[in-house]
Amino acid sequence: MKLSAPISLCLGVVVFSTAAFQPSFSFTPSQRAPRTKLSPVVLHQEGKGSFSLANLFGESGSAGPSLRGSKNLEPHPSVRSHISPLNRLGPDEKKEVKSEPLPFHSNVKSGTLPNGLPYVILPNKSPPGRFEAHLQVFSGSADELESQQGIAHLTEHVAYMGSRKRELLFGTGSQTNAYTDFHHTVFYAICPNTTPRTNIPMLPMALDALVDVLEARVESSRLEKERAAVLSEMTMVNTIEYRVECQILSTLHRENRLAKRFPIGKESLIRSWQTDDVKSWHRTHYRPDNVLLYLVGDVDTEEAERVIAEKFGRLSAEKQGADIKIPEIKEQAKDLADAVVGGTVKAAGSWHYPPVRHDWNIAKDMDVDGKLIIPKDQLEYDINLQNSYPLDETVSFLQTEEVAPGKKIRPHIFRHELLQSFSMHLFAKRPVEPIIDLDSFRKSLARRVALAALQIRLNVGGRSDDPAFTFVEFNQLDSAREGCAVCSLDLTAEPHKWKEAICKSLSEIRKLGVHGVTMGEMERYASSLMTDAEQLAAQGDRIEHGDQLSYLMETVANGHTFMSPEQSYLMTAKALSSLTLEDVNSAAAELCSHVMSFKEGEDPVDGSVVAVACLPKGLEKDDPAYCDEDSLVKAIYEACQLEVEPEEDVVVPFTLVPEDELVKAMEENPPDWLGGQFSDGTPNTAPDTITRPFTLRRLGNGIRIGVNQNPHESQRGHLRLVAPGGRDAEKRLGFKKGSMAIGARTMQEGGAFGPWTREQVELFCVDHLLMVEITCNEESITVDFVFPTTNVGNVGFGDDVQLGITGTESVMQVVREIIVGFKWEEDALGRSKSSFRGTHESMLKNLENLSTEKIMEAMTADDERFLSIEVDEVNAITLDEAKTAVMSQMSPENLEISISGDFDVAEVLEMIYKYIGTIPADANKEYLVEEVPADVKGAVVSSVPSLPLPGKFVELELPDSDPRAVAYVSGSAPNAWGYLADGRTVSEIILEKDKRASEYDLGRRKHPLFARIALLLLSEIFNRRLFSNVRERKQLTYDANFSFTGFERLMGGWFLVTVTASKENAQKALEACKETLHNLRKTNPITPDNAESAKRVVLNRHEFSLRTTQYWTEQMSGLQEESVPLKGPLSFTDFQAVVEAITVKDLQLVLETMGLDDNELYTAIGKTVKPDGVEEPEEELVRQAPVIGMRRGGALTG
Hints:
By secondary structure, the protein is of the alpha+beta class. It has four domains: about 10-25 and about 35-55 and about 75-95 and about 105-355, Cytochrome Bc1 Complex, Chain A, domain 1 (2-Layer Sandwich), CATH 3.30.830.10; about 400-560 and about 570-640, Cytochrome Bc1 Complex, Chain A, domain 1, CATH 3.30.830.10; about 660-925, CATH 3.30.830.10; about 955-1170, Cytochrome Bc1 Complex, Chain A, domain 1 (2-Layer Sandwich). Strands 1, 2, 3, 4, 5, 6, 7, 8 and 9 form a nine-stranded mixed sheet that branches. It has a seven-stranded mixed sheet with strand order 16-17-18-22-19-21-20, sandwiched between helices. A six-stranded mixed sheet has the order 10-11-15-12-14-13, sandwiched between helices. Helix 14 (about 500-515) packs antiparallel against helix 18. The protein is globular and about 80 Å long. Mean pLDDT is about 90; it is low at about 1-70, about 935-940 and about 1175-1198. One of its GO terms (molecular function) is metal ion binding. Keywords: Hydrolase, Metalloprotease, Protease, Signal, Zinc.
């Protein structure tokens, strides 16, 4: 199961891209029903009042004759008049606006069918020839009755996996998926406009599949399969990270039903339900008035409306209600439905929200709808589940502490043996404020400026020589899944620094609230907002369907106005032109009000501030790291009493490389262009010619250059600097273990260049919207930049704007300084070491990571290049050792720069010429180190170690209070380009085995891209087979995954199959995975359908990825590297041709180059064991299966 949405549960993406199942009919599905019987469409151009069947059908509320099978049926027990889920796009009376209303996206078309089913259509051309249809059911786990806990998620599985019409999408290049959250269940299909080869329209087919979900057959065989999958998923998701998130959400929403209605549900109930139970939930909630269809893509609006009416028009709530078989469920659902519309954020705010009320943390004079406030007297119906119920597990109802009159904190401590650091999460819940007019839009921008200023202060100023925290974030987001806006402070720290971390972070929040932002900060972040809006406007209709749809769903859900990128740009310019410092500081004070109110003498606010601290178990009370509820509350309160001083502006450089310095560099080291050189058979390129799809050259100093123009991401670019070597070079050059990786992280933590301090450089990057990430893996050090290609760092707006340099030029300056001007600092090394210590300690307490580490130890005979860096080894690295290791790789002749973006290639080449070409060829020569002689023990490098045979079984036990298990199957494999550990290639081995191959086959298999493509296809085939055998047929797991290590420079590699299962089924799941691998070679080999399906997936992924600048830089990296001899321009130009030419026999032969024999396999099972003497902790909040992800933004991200 793919972990996609915050706390949501979703099915793993199933990509159907094979011609294995072709429709047997030759007509389009839309031809099945004559147009004269289509249900008419109610368009939303006018209209008032609540959203109800009575309003749509007349006073009787009964369906018209077009709703077949619904005559003379009783009304559905859960249908109530309610606000339209279309919100601002719907027929209800528009909210009164106080200023100029925001414009609506002119291309959006919304409507409601006579049966109550609403829809939204957004034509979008990127990518062309494709569309996405998402069906949102407005019932999730929060709508479950006491006896239904977990049934929303199980029903999602049954409806999705049981859909026969979904199977018609097989072989079309479509993707389908589904997920469940607190507030909804969503099903979606991402499809091409027509089927491959036969050109049958796919919109009717996709909507047929979604209608099938609403009319789901609940078959006992499918229920048993999905019951097994869900039970396996309960184990899979139960990591310590999710248990922490479970504790956080339970505390945050203790006053309402979200604390007792997690999507995964109760295991005992899941094991007990029969088909009538699932069908009763489905028929109660999967009804036309309780769903919303989104359609975004390259579609014709009128045709789409016609097909929607044809497919969905025959559904009726009455027919669904008649199929609810359990009388007590029907009666209880009636009561819940009455309570929902009687007073919840769902009824009063947005039908997208869960049916809850919140304990708001707001100013006492703030006007809030009474239906949203929890009354002092108990409601007749316990909508917030504050009573005790038979199925409740051990719950410690939290005490709210009043630290001063009217000032309340709700604390909770969660301790666990798998935690190794301290984290605190401080929350205030506020009503969502719809953004519908210029005033509300300006306020939202002011809030974003204030939040950006605070986050940068925390990030830049908080990274001292001995930082108080290792991570900190302050934000406020509208959360449809929780039905509120959540203002959150999240931080992590070393356990003994927890008080300091609280003090530092809360002081910064109070400083912002009390003193506001500086004028320099306001100009900086307002300019960033303007640049963001300009980029989106420039992208226009090139924004991807998925991005458009996510934004559309989020905007509609929260009642905001959905604008086009161009409209958003114009309104942003209008709002910012009148934005004042007072506006920003007012927004800052409101954001920070819950923290500011704790200061003695300040007025209290309504509601409680929620504080959750998570820390290691077993600390003694006299330990500085010990924290309990009383000390947590005391630390928070005391931190809020400290006086704070206003922030002072930092002088930020306009440019990192002054013009006179660049002129001097041009004189001392005149740059020169050389032609590109390749090892894949491509002729060398000229040094003075711009070519397509990329321009490949070398500079006179040896640096390899690749430039690609990509207009798909408007005004954006991506640059990748690669220094081959990585952890392999640690061993090859005789450096201390970990010095290369720790050094790379030190660069990330540092950033002082030339005369500029780290703080100045970081703010320069902020001003120019540069994002930098420096990483080190087994093969290389990589520096990635994301940047705007327009002028940034501008000051002022409109006619008064003073343009800064472009983001592209900013990147060139930073790249130059990284190579020749970087300052190495002890405090950056300290932060780097702290990060690695935390990573290693976390690995030791993570079942999956520790199991992987153990199997790698066995397979590599403890080769340090592929293993975690232990704490003692981290501590032993000095600054000089880290510096020497990294800078030894920064010789110009060792470097390659690839850049892709929406820019003029000639202009970029000129910048590279000046900034990069003037770097001396002998730069960093003082750090060069001779390689360790080959006869020195352990010096065999540039390939993975030979696999010790026979293979081994590794068993691991990890102390943990909850039962979990994971199994692995691994063995040898070629690297990404087909090289084996002994230096032979896949092509060479196949040529030896297939002596009767034709000249055509010999030519294909000698292509440098042959092995690369074959391995990509095999990976898809393995994953599909594992899903079919281990999950679908044997019902042993929720998820089994196959992957290659994919080294490019190191010869050889491994494959790894990962399968999660219950402890009881772990061994069976492992054997099933081995069986799948064996069958693919022998008893059930690859079929033409398997190959065609995999080809479509690989080609679609490649085509989609070519629209991103990051993919281009990743693919250009290595094109001119001698250490990747088969990678060259042909890997781009011949990609599709090589994919299409691969045969089943090719794949079967490549399969034989892998170590798949039983004696070559390494297997492992990692299991948790209950710690000695462990007892259920008294302070534990809720003992139930955890939930998936908590980060806000909702399940809208898929």
